[in-house]
Structure formats: C-alpha cells, structure tokens
Amino acid sequence: MVQADDGGVELPHQSRLLWEREPGAALESAGKAVFGLMLNGAQGDDDEALAGHFAGVTGQFNADGSYHDWLVTNFYNLDTVSEKAIIAAVTPMDNYLADLNAGQNYYRPSYMVVATLKDGLPAAEFQQSINQVMNHFYRHNFIYNHADANCAGITIDTLRALGWKVPHRGINGYIMAIGAYFYTALTEADLDAARQIYDYLTTETTRLLPAVAFDAIGEDLLRLTATESPRSLTAYEQRLAESIEAIWFVRIPQIPSSRVLGGAPIYSFSEYLETAPADRDDWVTIELAERDIPVALKQTEPVNPPPHPIPWPVMLILLSLFSLVVTILKFFIKKRIS
C-alpha cells in the first residue's frame, strides 16, 4: 500500500480500514485514544533523503475524522540546521505535516497506521516514555546518528524498552559492510564516509530504515489482534492487544507546490543503490550547517559519541594484512641473507 502508484504522491487522501474487533466498531471510535505510526516518503530533491522519516503518533479520535491535533514525536538532528527549519519536538499533526516551513508533506507523501484503543493506557505509556527520551535528547545524553540513533531507531527502541518486542529483520551483513568500507575509503578517500556506510550495513534494519520500522511494527500490530498470539506476550503487549478496537491505514498525498514530487521510501540498501544515481557526483544533496548547541544543554558526555573512523573488524583485517606482509618480508630477507 505504501509503494503502490509511486507512493500515492498525487492520489487523493485515503483512509482504509484494515481490521476491526467487531462489525461497526470502527464507526464508534469518536473520543477513543489512538496510537499510530507515521512514515514519510522519499524526497524528490535530495538523494540522501530517499529513506524517508518515521515518528510515533498519539491522540484522540475526533468525531469529524480529523487528526490535526494528534501529537507526533519528531526526532531530527539537533546538531545541524535543517533545510526545512525543523527542530526536534513533540508537535501537533497539522504543524508536522503542513506547516509552511517544516511541513513534511510539502516535500513528500506520508502514510500512517493508526489503532483506536478502548483503553488509552498503552498510548499514554508510550507518550510518557518518548517524552522522557526527548528530554534526554535535548540534554545531549545521546546524539542523533543516521545509522544507530535516527528517527526510526529512537522510536522503536522506546517501544521495545516498554515491552513491545517487535521482531527484528536482521542486518545486511558484515561481509558486505567490510567490502563497502574499503570501496568507499579507496574511492572517496574519506574514512568517516566509509565508517558511515559500514554502520548502515551493520545496523539492524528495523532501527535503520523508517519504512522497515513502519512495516515491522504495523505487521506486529495486526498480529497482536489474532485470537492466539504466535508468541508469549509481555504485559505491555497484552494491554495493547486487549485494547485495539480498529486499525486503519492512511495515505496522505504531497501538498502541491513548487517542490519536486517525492515518492515511496526505500526499503533496503539495494533499493537505495537502484534508486539513487550510480555516479555519486550526480547526487542531489543539501549541505547542512552545524548548529552551536548551548553549553547548558551539554550536561554530560553522550552515551553514543561519534565512532572511530575504522571499525574493529576492519582494524583486525588491516593488522592481519600488516602481519602477513611483515612475515613475508622477513622470510625473503632471511632467505636472501642465507
């Protein structure tokens, strides 16, 4: 549903009922709590933004069907100045999607999976927890990292910490990551860029890619509605499963403007390579200025400081090659002397 019709970027707004506990339950949602997942698509004018964006949503189902006042917990890098003028915050939906300076839907289409709940406690627990995470984020207890601590990773880590054991989807693989590291280091002569591609390929994909997080959580949300769960549920999962009244899929088209049309986000590293121009020089990118963070907000050293440019598996390979070269040289020198 996300990828169909170029991501639905120019199609009408769509609300599709995926499941309801009893016939007609979805029509009796007014006033009930909602818990949702927000996925924003790929930008059409930035080849570094093809993976989209992700956020958690909470609120109350309005009688007229509107969702302008639902809360979206939006994590963006605090250490750079966003070209959209976005600053990480818990923000109302109308600002998140349609504010002239920061609205996501001026840049790309968006999608939601929304569950209405007869008991709002699971949504309230999530919002309380993610508010605390945002507090730690602003205190620089941890920093935004496009691989390990991005919008998807921060949100799904919070859900898993609450007890929602969303199944993992795995990593791309260390062999691919090591090969990509050496290729990037040699072709771009940039160890930081090489480390970044290595981290992308070794990060669990539900934490790395917004579309994969959206797919995995949405699939598990539907799985929780089954009469018999395929796994033993935690206390949080049990409360959520018993509370779900209906589940909706919502597709929101891009707002017409002078901006280039976006599309569906990519779901894998291989899809990224297929979508972005083959020649890196042909990429359309937007350089972001660094933001000076007030010292008062840097109360402690972050728990996830920038990683060393050379990861330990690569360091181990380099040391092994160095030892091999030294051993071979010693052999030939000894042979020549004898």
From TrEMBL:
Keywords: Membrane, Transmembrane, Transmembrane helix
Name recorded for this polypeptide: DUF4105 domain-containing protein
Residue intervals passing through the bilayer: 312-333
